[in-house]
Write a structure and sequence with these properties.
Layout (H helix, E strand, L loop, with lengths): L1 H12 L19 E5 L2 E5 L6 E8 L2 E5 L1 H52 L1 H45 L4 E3 L5 E3 L1
Antiparallel strand pairs: 1-2, 2-3, 3-4, 5-6
Helix pairs in contact: 2-3
Length: about 180
């Protein structure tokens, strides 16, 4: 690995930089490659080429994290995501309850205004009229059902009568057969 870096440095040393990088700023074995993500740092081990995960314990101080630490962090993240989903659901439910309560309050307010303006008897009269309309509608539906039932019964009776009457053939004098 070191020989390839050396070859690259030698190759770039003789040419002007097209990328704007100087040869001394290129990574070498002593320059670690690392990436900081919040309170975590991922570092490439220059000897093995493996990734090392580091956790910040203080300002600029990091310790190496092993597999179990990373697993615990992942589990904690999953727990927090589940909790976040649950809190979002609770928030939705509370908003629905709030909106329904607001609508109920508006309806009650309108009803109170009607009572004040028209009096309590007019509201009772409206309820009675609505009840009468519903009862009338139910009666009409019941009458329709009864008519359909009567028609069905009549058609079945006619079918029974037709089946019971024997079909006889009577010969006429002209040689035509007539069914009775």
């Amino acid at each position: 690995m070191s020989s390839s870096w050396t070859k690259l440095r030698r190759y770039l040393a003789g040419k002007p930089s097209k990328t704007g990088l100087q040869t001394d700023s290129l990574p070498n074995r002593k320059t670690p490659i690392e990436c900081t993500l919040g309170k975590m740092m991922i570092k490439v081990n220059p000897d093995t080429g493996s990734l090392e995960y580091m956790g910040e314990i203080g300002q600029g101080e990091y310790i190496k994290l092993d597999h179990t630490d990373l697993q615990n962090i992942k589990e904690r993240m999953e727990e927090l995501e589940d909790e976040n989903r649950l809190l979002k659901l609770k928030n939705e439910i509370l908003l629905d309850l709030l909106s329904s309560t607001t609508l109920d309050a508006k309806y009650m307010e309108q009803t109170l205004l009607k009572i004040k303006n028209e009096g309590f008897h007019s509201i009772n009269n409206q309820e009675e009229e609505e009840k009468e309309k519903r009862e009338k509608k139910e009666r009409k539906e019941k009458e329709k059902k009864e008519k359909k039932e009567k028609k069905r019964m009549q058609s079945t009776n006619e079918q029974v009568v037709k089946r019971d009457v024997p079909k006889r053939q009577i010969s006429s004098s002209h040689g035509n057969t007539v069914r009775a």
